[in-house]
Design a protein that fits this description.
With 423 residues, this protein is of the alpha/beta class. Helix content is 40%, strand content 15%. The strands form 3 sheets. Strands 4-10-9-8-7-5-6 form a 7-stranded mixed sheet, with helices on both faces. A 4-stranded mixed sheet has the order 1-2-3-13. Strands 11-12-14 form a 3-stranded antiparallel sheet. The longest helix is centred in the C-terminal third of the chain and has 21 residues.
């Protein structure tokens, strides 16, 4: 047995499914998951010492690759001063200031520990501020595993074919309206019928949990228009896109300003750190200023905050986004050429340095299109690239991520492996 096989066998006796997040179990692609030992820039090294180009990058969190020196040093220095206080720190204020300055839709922000916590809290705040109960979400968009947001979600829920989840009560699901992504007419019809009861619309401004599906022209603008007219709160889930497709997030890239924004991944520099923020009048409904309660013992954890400040300072100072997009375009063009040469139908969805491959002839514009792709072929492609020294996400519904350490040699290695894939 390999070391990863030994670890997985032991893990399955101690942890449900052997993993602490379901998609890591390789259920969608088959085989035994590799266990990570360490990361170095664009590479990940597994427990058996196999070194692979990493196109997961902690699901988009690592904008500057594994073990970036400035981020590691900031976290190490913070840990030496104390790992948790249960009291406010100056660093929390500094991280909040950077977020407020970067994002046009954020006047005030509260730090939390995970993307799920951020989206859950934003929905509670929207309901508390509006006095309404219903929320609108979109098929294939994943907003964490809070009860009201699991209906027809993407990411791991889509991977395992779960339309909802046992344990979510009928009452929790009753107030969630789920619509097709990129369907402006469905949004209009829903608001015409239920607008007075809708507290919030939550959306990934770039869907990145059914593969990467960009918004079609006018879609985000229509959400903004309808929410404003109905007095509903527009929530952009930028846990993935925030500081990833641009320093100002998707809201700056597409010129549509939400009322609330949720953040995570890049803003934590690889540590468990997230946030939600928005208009000042909405955020002041939160306790202790207002009656909407939210709290967390590890919110604003000093080690995670230090890593987040280091990551955002690097992003602002180095402006890595143009170079990342050039690398993404080179890689995508190479993949398109490889698939065409081998007679394989494939579509590549992309936004900035986020992209994904769907094995289908038709454009993917929504969850129905993502589900119609050939996921068995993706599983074969996954294992082919794994054998060729490339680590892909173990599901056709997940995003691929680049970091600043992916250069010409790494791109060539990916394309070499992809070029010999026969389908």
């Amino acid at each position: 047995m390999t070391r990863s096989e030994e670890l997985f066998a032991r893990a399955r006796s101690l942890i449900p499914g052997g993993v602490d997040s379901p998609v890591r179990a390789f259920g969608a692609v088959g085989g035994t998951p590799w266990f990570a030992e360490r990361g170095e820039g664009a590479f990940v090294i597994d427990a058996d010492g196999v070194r692979r180009v990493d196109l997961v990058q902690s699901w988009g969190a690592l904008l500057f690759g594994h073990a970036r020196e400035e981020i590691v040093r900031a976290a190490t220095d913070a840990a030496a001063r104390g790992t948790s206080f249960g009291a406010p720190t100056e660093a929390e204020v500094e991280l909040a200031a950077r977020i407020v300055e970067a994002l046009p839709g954020v006047d005030m922000v509260r730090l939390v520990s995970s993307g799920t916590e951020a989206t859950m809290s934003a929905i509670r705040l929207a309901r508390g501020a509006t006095g309404r109960e219903r929320i609108v979400k979109f098929e294939g968009c994943y907003h964490g595993h809070a009860d009201a947001l699991l209906a027809r979600a993407g990411s791991g829920v889509a991977t395992f074919g779960i339309p909802g989840s046992p344990g979510v009560t009928e009452g929790a699901a009753r107030d969630t309206i789920t619509l097709p992504y990129n369907d402006v007419e469905a949004v209009r019809t829903t608001f015409d019928r239920d607008g007075d009861a809708i507290a919030a619309v939550i959306v990934e401004p770039v869907a990145a949990n059914m593969g990467v599906v960009p918004p079609e022209p006018g879609f985000l603008d229509a959400l903004r228009e309808r929410c404003t007219a109905a007095g509903a709160v527009l929530v952009f889930d930028e846990v993935i896109t925030g500081f990833r497709i641009g320093y100002g997030g998707a809201q700056s890239r597409f010129g549509v300003t939400p009322d609330l924004t949720t953040l995570g991944k890049v803003m934590g520099g690889g540590f468990p750190c997230a946030a939600f923020g928005g208009r000042r009048d909405l955020m002041q409904h939160l306790a202790p200023d207002g009656p909407v309660y939210q709290a967390g013992t590890l919110s604003g954890n000093p080690v995670a905050v230090a890593a987040g400040i280091a990551a955002l300072d690097l992003a602002e100072r180095l402006d890595p986004y143009p170079a990342l997009e050039r690398t993404a375009e080179t890689l995508m063009e190479g993949l398109r050429g490889a698939f065409a040469a081998n007679g394989i139908a494939a579509r590549i969805g992309c936004a900035g340095s986020l992209f994904s491959v769907s094995f289908t002839e038709e454009p993917v514009r929504d969850f129905a299109g993502a589900r119609a792709a050939d996921h068995e072929r993706y599983a074969r492609f996954f294992h082919h690239l794994l054998a060729g020294g490339v680590a892909l996400p173990p599901s056709g519904y997940e995003l691929w991520s680049l970091c600043t350490e992916h250069g010409d040699d790494e791109v060539a290695r990916v394309l070499d492996a992809a070029g010999s894939f026969a389908g």
